[in-house]
Every structure is written in C-alpha cells, then in structure tokens.
Design a protein that fits this description.
Elements lengths: L13 H15 L5 E5 L10 E11 L2 E12 L2 E7 L1 H4 L6 E2 L2 E2 L3 H17 L6 E5 L5 H9 L10 E6 L7 E2 L20 E2 L2 E3 H8 L2 E4 L2 H6 L10 H6 L4 E3 L27 H13 L11 E8 L5 H4 L5 H4 L3 E8 L1 H13 L4 E5 L3 H10 L2 E4 L9 H7 L3 E5 L2 H6 L6 E3 L4 H14 L3 H12 L5 H15 L4
Helix pairs in contact: 1-17, 3-4, 4-5, 8-12
This protein binds adenosine-5'-diphosphate and alpha-D-glucopyranose.
Length: 469
C-alpha cells in the first residue's frame, strides 16, 4: 500500500485511520501486506531500522537519493521514505495553510520510491495506492513496466478517499516529474492546461475503488464529480465502492483510555459521567445534564457543511441545547465558532486545533453528533458516534447515507439551512423521550462496522485482479 499518512505515524484526516487499520485487517486474513509512506518529522528516525540505503530515483533530470527505513507496527511492516529535503518538515502538505511549493516533486518521489521498493525490499502482486499523493504510482508503473520486468505482472489499484483533492499543478512543473510529454494529453495527466495527479491515476490504474457504495455513484455525476465525472464514467466497469471499517480497538467506550468513565449498551451510566466531565472541560453549564449536548469533531472545510451550520445560530437561542466543537482549518469557521462562544460562553464551547483525546471525549460525552456534510466519501466520526451511543444527525450523502439509518440517527437530504434546522429540532425533541432515545442509542451501539468485512472485499478484489477470483 502506498499512502501519504497512516495512524499512528502521521494523520490529517480519515485517510490515516484507514491506512492505519486496513493493512492489519488484511494481514489477519492471510494477506502479506506492507505500507510505504514518507518519513515525516513526526516519525522518530531512531525508532526505525535501515531497510535499503542509497536508492536513486529520477524525476526529470534530477536524481533523488532516498533511503528506506522500516518498522513493524501491529504486525504490519511499514517502509518509510527517508528524504529529509522533502519530508523533514513541520506539516504533511502545507505550512499554516499554504501548500508546499514542491508537493509535486515530494509525491512523485514517494511514488518512485514505492516502485523501487516493489523491485527490492518488497516484491508484490498488487500496488494499492491511496489518493492523489500516491496516484502517480500506476502512471510510473505503466511508464516503466517494459524496462522493469519485475513490475510487468503487478496490478495497480487506486482508492479515492476524496475527489475534492486532486493534486493539480501548473504545466511548467510537468517536466519535473520525469515523464515524457506524451503523458501530458487530455486522456492522461492533462486537465484544463494543468497537471492532475489523481486523473493520471484514474486513467492508468487497473482498478479504482472509493470508500462507500453511494460515493462511487455520486462521483460519476456532474454534481459529485469535481470535473472528473466523465473520466470516472468511462471507467465505471472498473470502479467499486467499498465501505470503510472502523478500528474498534481504538474506538470503544468500554475500554477507551481517554474517557473519565467506561460504559456499554448494557450499562450506560458511565456516559453521564463522560457528559458531565466534558461540559466542565469546556467550561459549560453542567448543572442540568438533561439538556441535549451536540458534538462536532471536524476539519473546518466547506465539505463538512459549516455554511449550513452558520445559518442555525438562532437554534441555540430557541432551545437549551448545548454545543461543543473541536476542529481546525479555515479561518472564517474558526472565527464563527469563537464568536458563538463569546455570545453564549456557558452554552457553546470551542477548541481549535487537533486533539485526539478530546475527539474521543466528545464522542463519549455528547448526546448528538452533527455532520451535515456537503459531500462525504465515507466519514468515520458518525460510525464512531454509533458505537459511543451518540446519535448522529447527518446529511444523507455518500458514506453518511450508507451508514446511518432512520432508526439509528437523523438524516436530511436537501443541502439547506432549513432542512438542517428542522432535523436538528426534531432530534433535540426526540431526545426528551428518554426511553425511545435509549433504544435508539442501543441500536446504534450494536451496529458492527469493523474492518473484517471491508478487508474481505478488498481481498476478493485483489484475487480477481490476479485472476484467482
Ligand atoms: P475526513 O477524513 O474528511 O476529515 P473522516 O470522518 O473520515 O473525515 O475522518 C476524520 C478523522 O479525523 C477522524 O478520526 C476524526 O476523529 C479525526 N479528526 C478530525 N478533526 C480532528 C481534530 N480537530 N482533532 C482530533 N481529531 C480530529
Ligand atoms: C476522506 C473523506 C472521508 C473518508 C476518509 C477516509 O478524507 O473526506 O469521508 O472517511 O477520507 O476514507
């Protein structure tokens, strides 16, 4: 597997959760799998060992010297591309919101190093690549396979976690990728005059997957295709949606080390302790625990529906519902929530930044989890919420539609402030009926989205591609 992030080594979003858990689930089913990713500054060099020194990869006229470092984590071998001039930086992709100017070279070198690894330390049948950062792997593989016999029979899969991020670069950067201009055409990497990494992967990979069945359909429509729906339609016979799983070793209210108390569907008493502690942690009014508490854990990006949330401020005037928000990202949303907090400091709490323990405490302490996404390839937080007995309020798109049913959560369809407002009112009203609410919580907690089922689907896809299925 080739990816740019994986838990516990580096994470900016759900991609890292997936790459951190799927390989282990595949290994449990007998697959032999390794992951290759950059060695960022967050990964201590001295905790890794040497796997291969002085590999030279060529992107354009420039030779890049990289080492491969390695470490086994939860039974899975990780290879780390050691290239300090590219990866020993504070951020993964950007510095305080501004993309690194050499991202095209950084992830071209990741792809080339992955192909190098496949010919040295880890010969493999399948190269399974994730998102635009790994999307040049199938491109280079096709480019090199005639001269590198070890790659000829290797199959490539590209998993699209989010079509909103395509890796688009100016055409003047194309020569730095080391591909001849024959690759820069409208049926290959060229896209409205730019270079588009994801498109390159989409047209060259043997198979494409995305992270939910509904999103697989949505991305083939003009509304959901981010300009690439035509390309995806042309590959519809090699495109499947496989729903993500979640790692219940990490997300389990019965054992979660970040919580002040544990609980289960049988004994929910610990959840009230978690709620009280969470309200106190945010400095909110904790006198009456029967007020509904709404939680948000999110990247502050338009994708997540914050433009709708902006329109329902008056909801907090009209009801006694409380709100806790954890997130980071776009300045305008940070300002919005900070303003809300100043407006009602005992009712609305905000924590800006990245904070994994707090994400767990919000999942446990909140009564409702709000995720009104504009689009959502899969979404993991709503699935964590189910297990924590925190009822999701979601927009019925992508993986949200596939994982939340009317009996476990609240869904609305139209992307409008009115639809969100009505649904939230309905949910907050339903919360007052304690018995029905507890039933709803228990139904959600009993749902099983563990990785095994998803990993089996990937395994059968691998077998099929290798002619063994
Ligand atoms: P996306 O990948 O689009 O951001 P997902 O729902 O798939 O959305 O995954 C988001 C992951 O990132 C979850 O594991 C969530 O808990 C975590 N996360 C998001 N924002 C934060 C934050 N500010 N602090 C801690 N964890 C966060
Ligand atoms: C992306 C998507 C999210 C998905 C995650 C993991 O970041 O935005 O919906 O859950 O990838 O596949």
């Amino acid at each position: 597997m080739v990816a740019s992030e994986a838990v516990p080594f580096a994470k900016s979003g759900g991609l890292a959760d997936v790459v951190g858990a799927l390989p282990a689930a595949l290994a449990r089913q007998g697959e032999e799998v390794a992951v290759i990713m950059p060695r960022y500054r967050s990964i201590p060099w001295h905790e890794t060992e040497s796997a291969f020194d002085n590999m030279v990869v060529y992107a354009g006229a420039t030779p890049y010297r990289v080492d491969l470092r390695t470490q086994v984590h939860r039974g899975v071998r990780f290879f780390f591309v050691e290239a300090p001039y590219f990866f020993d930086r504070e951020g993964l992709y950007n510095h305080h919101g501004t993309d690194y100017l050499d991202n095209h070279k950084r992830f071209a070198v990741l792809a080339l190093a992955a192909l190098g690894a496949a010919q040295t330390v880890f010969p493999c049948d399948i190269l399974h690549c994730h998102d635009w950062q790994a999307a040049l792997v199938p491109v280079y593989k096709m480019d090199q396979q005639h001269s590198n016999p070890l790659l000829t029979n290797t199959k490539t899969i590209l998993t699209i976690h989010n079509l909103g991020y395509q890796g688009r670069f100016h055409r003047t950067q194309f020569p730095e990728l080391g591909l001849n201009w024959g690759w820069f055409t409208a049926d290959k990497l060229e896209y409205y005059g730019d270079v588009n990494f994801l498109k390159g992967g989409m047209v060259t990979a043997d198979w494409l997957t995305t992270v939910s069945p509904t999103y697989a359909r949505e991305i083939q429509t003009p509304e959901g295709g981010f300009g690439l729906d035509g390309v995806l339609r042309s590959r519809s016979d090699a495109l499947t949606g496989i729903l993500n799983g979640v790692d219940y070793e990490e997300w389990n209210p019965e054992t979660d080390p970040f919580l002040p108390a544990h609980y289960s569907a049988r004994d929910l008493s610990g959840k009230r302790i978690c709620k009280k502690a969470l309200l106190e942690e945010f400095g909110l009014d904790a006198a009456n625990l029967d007020r509904p508490l709404i939680g948000i854990v999110s990247r502050f990006a338009p994708q997540k529906g914050f433009d709708l949330i902006a329109g329902i401020r008056h909801f907090f005037e009209e009801t006694d519902a409380q709100l806790v928000v954890l997130g980071s990202g776009e300045r305008r949303y940070v300002q919005m929530f900070e303003e809300w907090h100043r407006w009602r400091p005992r009712q609305i709490g905000v924590w800006v930044g990245y904070n994994n323990p707090l994400a767990h405490r919000i999942e446990a302490g909140a009564d409702l989890f709000l995720m009104p996404s504009l689009y959502e390839p899969c979404g993991l937080n709503q699935i964590y919420s189910l297990r924590y007995g925190t009822v999701p309020v979601v927009r019925a798109v992508g993986g949200l539609d596939d994982t939340i049913q009317e009996d476990t959560g609240f869904k609305f369809h139209e992307y409008s402030v009115g639809a969100l407002y009505d649904t939230l009112r309905l949910a907050a009203g339903a919360y007052r009926n304690r018995d029905a609410w507890t039933e709803r919580m228990r139904r959600g907690m009993s749902k099983d989205y563990s990785w095994d089922a998803s990993a089996r689907q990937y395994s059968s896809l691998y077998a099929k591609l290798l002619g063994r299925g």
